[in-house]
Specification:
Layout: H1 3-19, E1 25-31, E2 40-46, H2 68-81, E3 83-89, H3 91-97, H4 99-115, H5 118-124, H6 131-142, E4 151-155, E5 165-169, H7 177-200, H8 206-209, H9 215-224, H10 235-238
Parallel strand pairs: 1-4, 4-5
Antiparallel strand pairs: 1-2, 2-3
Helix pairs in contact: 2-7, 3-4
Length: 251
């Protein structure tokens, strides 16, 4: 089978996976659970049925299976061909909540960013908001939706509490087109974020390692300490002293 035919077969397979649920679906995926620095990001993507014929979907799959150049190319097209939102939980929130709960928070923020007006979103997703207050705020928007006929597909085993039906899917970014789209949106956004931070803090190799614990990154922590973007609750960062404000970030 030619590579072109294989791509079409893959597209049909992962697109039909989403369609099989019989209701509109959003896909959610996260990136950045493992790094020592930077936020954890989540993207939520909905692909309207009229957009499914676009050829970009022939190439969309799990972002980890694509080269950086391919992801960058697909990123701009995917943004034009779906409805999406991207959200994060900061390094500080990761230290406060732990990485698991911070990841769920990022997912929740991405979903509600897609579904709710901005003012309600900021109230709903604040970590200190009580569950009763969250229920009240949710009812403001979702009471307007009589059908509530949509569901969310989430990559992995764990999901945040959302006011709709949820299906977690192990290796969902290889099975669901909407999750695969979300995985590319989240990955490219976070990589670009870490490249930007590298310009300010060039000692850690973030432009190449995206904050993961590579030898270059660990050496940078040993020599220069940590920054406000490091996750202080992660073991390699605990012993590092934070870079003083007066210390220049460039060598």
């Amino acid at each position: 089978m030619s590579s072109k035919l294989s791509a079409r077969a893959l597209k049909a397979d992962i697109a039909s996976f989403d369609a099989a649920f019989g209701v509109p679906v959003c896909g959610i995926d996260e990136v950045g659970r493992g790094p020592l620095a930077g936020p954890v990001l989540a993207a939520c993507a909905f692909i309207p049925s009229e957009k499914l014929k676009h050829p970009v979907w022939d190439a969309v799959t799990d972002s980890k299976k694509l080269s950086a150049a391919k992801r960058d190319y697909l990123f701009e097209i995917i943004k034009d061909q779906c409805v999406y939102a991207i959200a994060e939980a900061s390094a500080e929130e990761i230290d406060t909540l732990n990485i698991h709960h911070a990841t769920l928070l990022a997912m929740k923020r991405a979903y509600f960013s897609l579904m709710l007006p901005r003012a309600e979103l900021s109230l709903l997703c604040h970590p200190d908001r009580s569950e009763a207050e969250r229920r009240d705020l949710r009812s403001l928007d979702f009471a307007r939706d009589d059908n509530k006929r949509h569901m969310v597909l989430i990559d992995g085993k764990f999901a945040p509490t959302l006011p709709c039906k949820i299906q977690t899917i192990v290796k969902g970014d290889s099975k669901s087109l909407s999750i695969a789209a979300a995985s590319i949106l989240a990955k490219v956004t976070r990589d670009r974020m870490m490249i930007k931070l590298h310009e300010e803090f060039p000692h850690y190799g973030w432009a190449n390692n995206a904050g993961y614990g590579t030898p270059e990154h660990l050496t940078g922590i040993e020599k220069f300490g940590i920054t406000s973007h490091h996750r202080k609750s992660f073991a390699p960062c605990r012993a590092g002293e934070e870079m003083p404000p007066q210390m220049p970030s460039r060598a």
